[in-house]
Queue: 3 jobs
Job 1
Amino acid sequence: MEHPHDPRELFCRYEGNPILRALDWPQMENAVFNPGAVMFEGQTLLLVRVEDRTGISRLMVARSDDGYTNWIIEPDRTLAPDQSHWAETWGVEDPRITRIGDCYHIVYTGYSSAGPLVCHARTTDFVSFERLGVLVVPEDKDAALFPRQINGRWAMLHRPVPSGTNLGIHIWLSRSPDLEHWGDPCPVIESRRGGWWDANKVGLGPPPLETPAGWLVLYHGVRVTVSGSLYRLGVALLDLDHPERVVARGNEWIFGPAAPYEMAGDVPDVVFPCGWILDDDGDTLRMYYGAADSCVGVATASLTDLLNYLFMHPIG
């Protein structure tokens, strides 16, 4: 039975969810989830994390004319882990796709023997992929590029995990002159303390979306409960010219696991988006997310509604 939509929620689940399951793949797979998303050649293209029964993940293309139905799975269009390279020994995961010029830049998690780290590849056709190397060292993940230079430099959001500290795990911003060498880091969206839904640990969702009001950021917060971790989503707005400045941040989570396919799976109670697409109407935002680390769902929101919500939560 489909979970009914609450009209008070900003995101509305597609009634045909889940849109992709492991059973949709031609080969035996354990789970498909956490897709990057982009419009490519007039179609919605998802770069889906596909985990087989060894536990190793690769990234595979699925495409659809309407972004909801009749998905075509393409096994030959795959970014597979280079297991001869230390950075991808145990797979590649959770891609975020940013279009820069005619290239699609994919920032993804390499699962190395030293822990998860941020890797970079690019493509023009999603058939061949040029690896550009490791951007930041372990432990770091949940990273995405901004689509243009800001004040003469590129910017990236990412989520390092400090060791030996109980001060929280935050979303950071780093800058680069060339998309290869990264530095000048600073925390941007900090996890809150205490009983908040996003206390202690947050991480980036899809790449930041440029709007006239600022860079819209969708992020997950992790609440640890007696029965496990609960992943829910919130929004923030960064200054267009100074993205290290948070100009608005919602106090409440706006989307969380509620449907059966989000509450039961390999990792229960998880919604984890890595991609979203703004439709041609300039307002309908399609969010593609992994549900319970097992399947893929899509939900829609109005960009106007999201910004109006954030305008009620200014900072400063």
Job 2
Amino acid sequence: MSFSLLDRFSTIAPRYDVVLCDIWGVVHDGITAHAHACDALMRYRADGGVVVLITNAPRPSPWVIRQLARLGVPADAYDDVITSGDLTREEVARRGGEAVFHIGPQRDLSIFDGLDIRLAPVEAATYAVCSGLFDEDKETPDDYRGLIAAMRRRGLFMVCANPDLVVERGTTRFYCAGAIADLYLATGGEVLYAGKPHRPIYDAALAKASEVRGVAAEPARTLAIGDSLRTDITGARTAGIDGLFVSGGIHAHELGPGDSREALGAMFAAAGVTPWSVTARLAW
């Protein structure tokens, strides 16, 4: 499958009514906003386009909106936000007052705010919600093999609130909940992945875009932008929409200096997915 190389988003923007844009790695790096990306999204919206930011953040969208403001992302850069945390909350609410074992840092407990739950240890829980590692600065997924074995013995169902494997904060990499969920799945555990690349989060994002536009958002007129082949580009394929791959994000270290068509093609072949188009960074 062929792909096009783009210098600027403005060359293809008129083809689309809706953009579903990844956040971390495209709009900011975990420390500060990317001014060029924010400018591109604001210009797109000024021309009538709708932007829904779509993220595997394991927290509710209001929390992410506040974080975007702290990092310097203008409110004019997007119309709405949908997170894997939002979908996780829906699943937790559906399960009523069941006992939940939470795997992840204390800061992620906001995912349960206002919900009818009981936090419990692994020995007493009826299912688990994984939002990340307890201590992402010191731990790796291998540290969780004993816990995973204990969960398997009890046959616990897991909700993965962030299907990402890793994330970069500045130049430092941290493991995410998806790395633990994949280990659990590999042992035979049952996992519900709440975010990208799985279809429910795209359906939810298109529904939000439809509300903003006042008419249904059509997949054929929608573009997904992201820097992860595993989540963003595979997810776009799953949802039947075009994918714009930002090569300067999470995969930049694999490509090295310069994005040659040969290096990109080899990486896409290894990943088993090819985007519709590629740009080094999101810029108008």
Job 3
Amino acid sequence: MALSSPSVLTQNFDDTNRTTGDPYTTASITPTSGALTLICIQTAASLLDPTVTGAGLTWTILLSGAGGVSYNTVGSPGDRLMVFRGTGTPSTGAISINPADSVTGCLWKVVEWTGQDTTTPVVQSVTNRADNSTAVSVSLAAFGSANNGTFLVGAWNAAVRTWANEGGSWTNVSTQVSGTTPANALQASWLAGNDASPSATLSGGSPEWGAVALEIAAAAATAQPRRLVLNQSVSRASLH
């Protein structure tokens, strides 16, 4: 089965000020059993990783912490963009994003793929940030297979600006998520192929923003069993 395009299970924002023990909560979802499920999270005024629970899955930030990037270093306070992966047997339910400190707002996008490699579905996770810039790019290593896809996530502190992907075969993953107070935004794009230097631009302004790029691995093709063909030249007598 080929690697699917990402499906969005839910996305939204919450501008409420929250702290540890007072989590942000997504809508109820039902992840597909056996799928690769990720949640992209932006937190405002926090540089610490929250704890993520729910939907029957165990949520872990990607690749021992490489799934997150702190940005907005010119202004104050700073913000953080993270990607968590859910593993285990899914069930229907909401996801809780529990801050590790005081947070002034949170945005999230939950996506899933099927047809992925089940052993190492996320081959690499690389981050970058840009200050006072209309564009951000990320440098990935060489891809392991031409069948693997490229997933790019970005968050920035100017919700009135619109994300634009590289064009071509890139597609935006659903709509842009934009908060109001603070005015942060979150978006993702997908390429069903390899791009070792994915980038995106905004419609204007010079915000601070962070980006995470992932290589999503497709499942290896399964060889078809060989059929045994009887030699038609064998005489009927030789079969007795």
